[in-house]
Amino acid sequence: MRRLFWLTMGVTIGVLVVRKLSQTAEKLTPQSMAGNLADGLRQLAAAIGDFGADVRDAMADREEELRSGTGLDAPLPEQGAVALPRRGAHAADS
Hints:
There is one protein chain. The protein contains two helices and no strands. With 94 residues, the chain is an all-alpha fold.
């Protein structure tokens, strides 16, 4: 009975070792390595795209904050309103 146990144990361990080595050898083939590289590059491109989208969103939010804070989006004065005097190099153009 002991011999049968150890024989079964040895066969089981041998099968597991052979399967693990086969899987490792499969991962080290040129086709598998190229596939892994392609997947990695696809993931990198997606991450860069997501980062760019996040930057554009943050940039638009900040621009909106700046525009509302400086009044750049305020309506223009009406034609009948009193204009402020111009100063600087362009004052002579008036």
